[in-house]
Design a protein that fits this description.
alpha+beta; 43% helix; four-stranded mixed β-sheet; 7 strands; three-stranded antiparallel β-sheet; 270 residues; globular; single chain
Length: 270
Protein backbone atom coordinates (compact mmCIF):
# COMPACT_ATOMS: atom_id res chain seq x y z
CA UNK A 1 0.00 0.00 0.00
CA UNK A 2 2.91 2.36 0.69
CA UNK A 3 4.43 1.69 -2.73
CA UNK A 4 1.03 2.08 -4.41
CA UNK A 5 0.48 5.41 -2.66
CA UNK A 6 3.95 6.64 -3.58
CA UNK A 7 3.49 5.58 -7.21
CA UNK A 8 0.09 7.27 -7.41
CA UNK A 9 1.52 10.49 -5.96
CA UNK A 10 4.53 10.35 -8.28
CA UNK A 11 2.35 9.88 -11.37
CA UNK A 12 0.05 12.68 -10.27
CA UNK A 13 2.93 15.12 -9.89
CA UNK A 14 4.44 14.00 -13.18
CA UNK A 15 1.14 14.61 -15.00
CA UNK A 16 0.93 18.07 -13.44
CA UNK A 17 4.42 18.89 -14.71
CA UNK A 18 3.56 17.61 -18.18
CA UNK A 19 0.33 19.64 -18.27
CA UNK A 20 2.26 22.73 -17.15
CA UNK A 21 4.89 22.30 -19.89
CA UNK A 22 2.24 21.70 -22.58
CA UNK A 23 0.18 24.71 -21.59
CA UNK A 24 1.18 27.44 -24.04
CA UNK A 25 -0.26 30.06 -21.68
CA UNK A 26 2.53 29.32 -19.24
CA UNK A 27 5.27 31.86 -19.87
CA UNK A 28 7.40 31.38 -16.76
CA UNK A 29 10.82 29.87 -17.34
CA UNK A 30 13.19 28.26 -14.90
CA UNK A 31 16.94 28.66 -14.33
CA UNK A 32 17.39 25.36 -16.15
CA UNK A 33 15.86 26.86 -19.32
CA UNK A 34 18.61 29.49 -19.28
CA UNK A 35 21.43 27.16 -18.27
CA UNK A 36 21.69 28.87 -14.88
CA UNK A 37 20.45 26.10 -12.60
CA UNK A 38 23.86 25.64 -10.96
CA UNK A 39 23.93 29.27 -9.76
CA UNK A 40 20.41 30.75 -9.66
CA UNK A 41 17.22 29.56 -7.93
CA UNK A 42 13.67 29.97 -9.23
CA UNK A 43 12.67 32.77 -6.84
CA UNK A 44 15.75 34.85 -7.70
CA UNK A 45 15.19 34.40 -11.43
CA UNK A 46 11.51 35.34 -11.20
CA UNK A 47 12.41 38.49 -9.29
CA UNK A 48 15.10 39.31 -11.85
CA UNK A 49 12.76 38.88 -14.81
CA UNK A 50 9.85 40.76 -13.24
CA UNK A 51 11.93 43.84 -12.43
CA UNK A 52 11.15 46.96 -14.46
CA UNK A 53 14.36 48.01 -16.22
CA UNK A 54 15.47 50.94 -18.36
CA UNK A 55 12.86 50.07 -21.01
CA UNK A 56 10.04 50.94 -18.61
CA UNK A 57 8.70 47.38 -18.79
CA UNK A 58 9.46 44.15 -17.00
CA UNK A 59 12.80 42.73 -18.04
CA UNK A 60 11.28 39.34 -18.88
CA UNK A 61 8.92 40.86 -21.45
CA UNK A 62 11.80 42.48 -23.35
CA UNK A 63 14.51 39.83 -23.47
CA UNK A 64 14.88 36.63 -25.46
CA UNK A 65 17.67 35.00 -23.45
CA UNK A 66 19.79 35.22 -20.31
CA UNK A 67 23.11 33.51 -19.80
CA UNK A 68 26.32 33.84 -17.86
CA UNK A 69 29.49 35.52 -19.13
CA UNK A 70 32.52 34.00 -20.77
CA UNK A 71 35.74 34.08 -18.74
CA UNK A 72 37.08 37.02 -20.75
CA UNK A 73 33.83 38.95 -20.35
CA UNK A 74 33.94 38.37 -16.59
CA UNK A 75 37.41 39.91 -16.48
CA UNK A 76 36.29 42.98 -18.43
CA UNK A 77 33.22 43.38 -16.25
CA UNK A 78 35.41 43.24 -13.14
CA UNK A 79 37.64 46.02 -14.47
CA UNK A 80 34.59 48.10 -15.39
CA UNK A 81 33.16 47.75 -11.86
CA UNK A 82 36.57 48.53 -10.34
CA UNK A 83 37.01 51.69 -12.41
CA UNK A 84 33.79 53.05 -13.90
CA UNK A 85 35.69 55.83 -15.66
CA UNK A 86 38.30 53.56 -17.16
CA UNK A 87 38.90 53.67 -20.90
CA UNK A 88 40.77 50.42 -21.39
CA UNK A 89 37.87 48.62 -23.04
CA UNK A 90 36.20 51.46 -24.96
CA UNK A 91 36.99 51.14 -28.66
CA UNK A 92 36.74 53.95 -31.22
CA UNK A 93 36.98 52.94 -34.86
CA UNK A 94 37.08 55.63 -37.55
CA UNK A 95 36.35 55.04 -41.22
CA UNK A 96 36.31 57.58 -44.05
CA UNK A 97 33.69 57.62 -46.80
CA UNK A 98 35.06 60.20 -49.26
CA UNK A 99 32.51 59.57 -52.02
CA UNK A 100 29.32 60.33 -50.14
CA UNK A 101 26.89 58.42 -47.95
CA UNK A 102 23.17 57.69 -48.08
CA UNK A 103 22.47 58.28 -44.41
CA UNK A 104 19.09 56.53 -44.53
CA UNK A 105 20.57 53.37 -46.01
CA UNK A 106 23.54 53.69 -43.69
CA UNK A 107 21.44 53.67 -40.53
CA UNK A 108 19.15 50.94 -41.86
CA UNK A 109 22.22 48.80 -42.50
CA UNK A 110 23.40 49.14 -38.90
CA UNK A 111 19.91 48.34 -37.63
CA UNK A 112 19.98 45.20 -39.77
CA UNK A 113 23.35 44.22 -38.29
CA UNK A 114 22.02 44.63 -34.75
CA UNK A 115 19.02 42.45 -35.51
CA UNK A 116 21.32 39.71 -36.84
CA UNK A 117 23.69 39.41 -33.87
CA UNK A 118 22.45 38.72 -30.35
CA UNK A 119 25.67 39.96 -28.72
CA UNK A 120 25.05 43.46 -30.11
CA UNK A 121 21.71 43.58 -28.28
CA UNK A 122 23.09 42.33 -24.97
CA UNK A 123 23.32 44.14 -21.66
CA UNK A 124 25.24 43.03 -18.58
CA UNK A 125 23.86 42.87 -15.04
CA UNK A 126 26.37 42.26 -12.28
CA UNK A 127 24.62 42.75 -8.95
CA UNK A 128 21.12 41.24 -9.00
CA UNK A 129 21.85 37.51 -9.08
CA UNK A 130 24.54 35.36 -7.47
CA UNK A 131 26.51 35.55 -10.73
CA UNK A 132 26.74 38.26 -13.40
CA UNK A 133 24.59 37.59 -16.45
CA UNK A 134 24.02 39.03 -19.89
CA UNK A 135 20.51 39.67 -21.21
CA UNK A 136 19.66 39.60 -24.91
CA UNK A 137 17.00 42.17 -25.79
CA UNK A 138 14.70 41.53 -28.73
CA UNK A 139 14.89 45.14 -29.92
CA UNK A 140 17.31 47.97 -29.22
CA UNK A 141 17.68 51.48 -30.58
CA UNK A 142 21.08 52.36 -32.00
CA UNK A 143 22.39 55.79 -30.91
CA UNK A 144 23.07 57.53 -34.24
CA UNK A 145 24.44 61.07 -34.38
CA UNK A 146 24.97 63.34 -37.40
CA UNK A 147 27.45 66.23 -37.23
CA UNK A 148 28.43 68.78 -39.88
CA UNK A 149 31.99 70.13 -39.88
CA UNK A 150 32.02 70.93 -43.60
CA UNK A 151 32.10 74.70 -43.07
CA UNK A 152 35.27 74.50 -40.96
CA UNK A 153 38.84 74.80 -42.17
CA UNK A 154 41.00 71.67 -42.16
CA UNK A 155 42.71 72.80 -38.95
CA UNK A 156 39.37 73.56 -37.31
CA UNK A 157 38.01 70.19 -38.39
CA UNK A 158 40.98 68.42 -36.85
CA UNK A 159 40.47 70.27 -33.55
CA UNK A 160 36.69 69.71 -33.55
CA UNK A 161 37.17 66.01 -34.26
CA UNK A 162 39.69 65.64 -31.43
CA UNK A 163 37.31 67.38 -29.03
CA UNK A 164 34.41 65.18 -30.14
CA UNK A 165 36.41 61.98 -29.71
CA UNK A 166 37.43 63.04 -26.20
CA UNK A 167 33.84 63.84 -25.21
CA UNK A 168 32.67 60.59 -26.77
CA UNK A 169 35.19 58.68 -24.66
CA UNK A 170 33.98 60.42 -21.51
CA UNK A 171 30.39 59.32 -22.16
CA UNK A 172 31.39 55.77 -21.42
CA UNK A 173 28.69 53.09 -21.33
CA UNK A 174 26.09 51.82 -18.92
CA UNK A 175 26.65 48.10 -19.41
CA UNK A 176 23.07 47.29 -18.47
CA UNK A 177 21.67 49.34 -21.37
CA UNK A 178 22.27 47.86 -24.83
CA UNK A 179 23.43 48.44 -27.42
CA UNK A 180 26.92 49.00 -26.05
CA UNK A 181 27.85 50.83 -29.25
CA UNK A 182 27.02 54.06 -31.01
CA UNK A 183 27.61 55.59 -34.42
CA UNK A 184 28.43 59.17 -35.39
CA UNK A 185 28.55 60.38 -38.99
CA UNK A 186 30.61 63.56 -39.35
CA UNK A 187 30.37 65.52 -42.59
CA UNK A 188 33.76 66.94 -43.59
CA UNK A 189 33.03 68.06 -47.15
CA UNK A 190 30.40 68.07 -49.87
CA UNK A 191 30.57 64.27 -50.14
CA UNK A 192 33.13 63.33 -47.50
CA UNK A 193 31.95 61.67 -44.29
CA UNK A 194 33.84 60.17 -41.38
CA UNK A 195 32.19 57.42 -39.35
CA UNK A 196 33.04 57.08 -35.68
CA UNK A 197 32.00 53.68 -34.33
CA UNK A 198 32.36 53.50 -30.55
CA UNK A 199 31.71 50.28 -28.67
CA UNK A 200 32.62 48.44 -25.51
CA UNK A 201 35.11 45.61 -25.93
CA UNK A 202 32.95 43.21 -23.89
CA UNK A 203 30.71 42.64 -26.97
CA UNK A 204 33.37 42.36 -29.68
CA UNK A 205 37.00 41.37 -30.08
CA UNK A 206 39.40 42.84 -32.62
CA UNK A 207 38.99 40.03 -35.14
CA UNK A 208 35.22 40.41 -35.03
CA UNK A 209 35.44 44.10 -35.93
CA UNK A 210 36.67 43.36 -39.45
CA UNK A 211 34.06 40.65 -39.95
CA UNK A 212 31.28 42.94 -38.80
CA UNK A 213 32.39 45.88 -40.95
CA UNK A 214 32.60 43.58 -43.98
CA UNK A 215 29.07 42.37 -43.31
CA UNK A 216 27.86 45.93 -42.82
CA UNK A 217 29.30 47.06 -46.17
CA UNK A 218 27.55 44.19 -47.97
CA UNK A 219 24.22 45.10 -46.37
CA UNK A 220 24.76 48.79 -47.19
CA UNK A 221 25.51 47.93 -50.83
CA UNK A 222 22.24 46.00 -51.00
CA UNK A 223 20.23 48.94 -49.71
CA UNK A 224 21.97 51.35 -52.10
CA UNK A 225 20.97 49.27 -55.13
CA UNK A 226 17.38 49.02 -53.96
CA UNK A 227 17.72 45.42 -52.92
CA UNK A 228 16.92 43.67 -49.68
CA UNK A 229 19.85 42.27 -47.69
CA UNK A 230 19.94 38.54 -47.16
CA UNK A 231 18.27 37.51 -43.92
CA UNK A 232 20.59 35.06 -42.20
CA UNK A 233 19.86 33.00 -39.09
CA UNK A 234 20.49 35.03 -35.96
CA UNK A 235 24.02 34.72 -34.65
CA UNK A 236 23.53 33.65 -31.03
CA UNK A 237 26.46 34.27 -28.69
CA UNK A 238 24.85 31.79 -26.32
CA UNK A 239 25.82 29.02 -28.75
CA UNK A 240 29.48 29.85 -28.12
CA UNK A 241 28.98 29.76 -24.34
CA UNK A 242 27.29 26.37 -24.59
CA UNK A 243 30.20 25.18 -26.72
CA UNK A 244 32.86 26.19 -24.22
CA UNK A 245 30.78 24.73 -21.38
CA UNK A 246 31.28 21.33 -23.01
CA UNK A 247 35.06 21.69 -23.01
CA UNK A 248 37.09 20.04 -20.27
CA UNK A 249 39.15 22.83 -18.64
CA UNK A 250 41.49 20.34 -16.98
CA UNK A 251 42.23 18.62 -20.29
CA UNK A 252 42.98 22.02 -21.83
CA UNK A 253 45.29 22.95 -18.97
CA UNK A 254 47.12 19.63 -19.28
CA UNK A 255 47.48 20.04 -23.04
CA UNK A 256 48.99 23.52 -22.85
CA UNK A 257 51.30 22.69 -19.96
CA UNK A 258 52.61 19.74 -21.96
CA UNK A 259 52.81 21.73 -25.20
CA UNK A 260 54.80 24.55 -23.58
CA UNK A 261 56.98 22.30 -21.47
CA UNK A 262 60.66 23.08 -21.88
CA UNK A 263 60.28 26.66 -23.13
CA UNK A 264 62.14 29.05 -20.84
CA UNK A 265 62.28 32.15 -23.06
CA UNK A 266 59.94 33.77 -25.55
CA UNK A 267 59.76 32.00 -28.88
CA UNK A 268 57.90 32.13 -32.17
CA UNK A 269 54.71 30.10 -32.55
CA UNK A 270 54.97 27.42 -35.27
Amino acid sequence: STIASLSHSFIGHLKSLIDHCRDKRQVSLTPWDYGLSDWVDVASLNGFLSKVDFTGSSRGSQISDVYRLSALQQGMLFHHMYDRKGRAYIEQLRLDFPEGVDLGAFKASWDHILSSHSILRSGFVSDELDIPVQCVYREVSLPFEELDYSDLTEAEQSLALSEYLELDFKKGFDLQRPPLMRIAMIKLGASHYKMVWTHYHIILDGWSNAVLISEFLKVYASYLTGGVPTILPEDNYGDYLRYIDKQDPYASETFWKSYMDGYQTKTLLP
